[in-house]
Every structure is written in structure tokens, then in C-alpha cells.
Amino acid sequence: MIKQFLATAIAITVAFPVSANKWTAETTDGVHMASVISEENEILVLCDAGINAPISSINFVVNGVDPMPLSNIALFFDKDQPLYVVTDIEGGIGSNTQTDATTFTQVIDLLKSANKLKVRLFDGSQHTFRLSGSTKAIGNCTPDFNRFTLASN
């Protein structure tokens, strides 16, 4: 389901002209999408703005390649040491479990506070993204685990 949504999101992104390396955002059908695109590279942050199925996630495309499910990716924020993340079953950084929600929140916070991010995939592909404008584009993005935990209490 998320892959179908991503395909729709990418189709929408392609339909509207986007400046390279400029963060954009829109909310459609209760899902807030923030993204930055540079040629065959993209960061897409999906945030459930309503009560949808779990969809809040961070997704990457590097040199036209999506990360493999359950693979390691390295995230280099500014000059910091790399943050190694294991992708979920769809190849993104999900937010359904407590552990995933912690990582998701950490990456969201770094996307908002850092100046640049280099993403390196399992196959060695890498790309550096500028993060200027990410804070406004991403906005408030609550992990699915936190939303569902609050809803069940």
C-alpha cells in the first residue's frame, strides 16, 4: 500500500515543476508529504496528518535506487559520525514500532537541524542533500507508534 502511495506521490511530484534541491510540501488526503529532489535522488518524508493506516516514514532514492528492505543505510549529517539505520520491510525508515519510532524521530530532528545529509546505500551509492527549508516543509511529524499508542489510551 505504501509503495502505491509513493508511486502516486512521485507522479504528483513529477507533474509539478520542482526546483532541484528545494524542499516542497503538500498535504493530500490526510497525508503530509515533504520532499527534496535532485535529479535521480530524493528524500520523501510522509507524515500521517489524520487517522490513516500507518504511513509515516522517511524514504530515500539515491541514483535512481531505493534502499533494499531490511538493509543498512548510512546517514551522514553535516560533519557528524554516521548514523546507521536498518530500513523497514519497504526500504524506508518506518515508525510503527517503539524502536522504529525512536529512530524515525531522531532522523526527523536531524533533518530539521542539520545543514546537509549524505545518504549512502547498501551498494555504495551515495548522494548529498541540502537541508535548507526542511524544517518548514516537514513541520510536525509524529511517528505512527506514538499516534496509535496515544489513541489506544
Fold and architecture overview:
- The protein is an alpha+beta fold and 153 residues long.
- The protein contains 4 helices and 8 strands, in the order H-E-E-E-E-E-E-H-E-E-H-H.
- Strands 1-2-3-4 form a 4-stranded antiparallel sheet. It has a 4-stranded antiparallel sheet with strand order 6-5-7-8, with helices on one face.
- The two termini are 27 Å apart.
- Uncertain runs are 3-18
Class from helix and strand fractions: alpha+beta
Strand content: 25-35%
> Secondary-structure element order, as H and E?
HEEEEEEHEEHH
Overall pLDDT metric: 86
Report the total helices.
4
Brief descriptors of the model:
four-stranded antiparallel beta sheet; alpha+beta; 153 residues
List the helices and strands and how they pair.
Layout lengths: L1 H14 L8 E5 L2 E8 L2 E8 L8 E5 L10 E6 L5 E4 L11 H16 L2 E5 L5 E5 L3 H5 L5 H9 L1
Antiparallel strand pairs: 1-2, 2-3, 3-4, 5-6, 5-7, 7-8
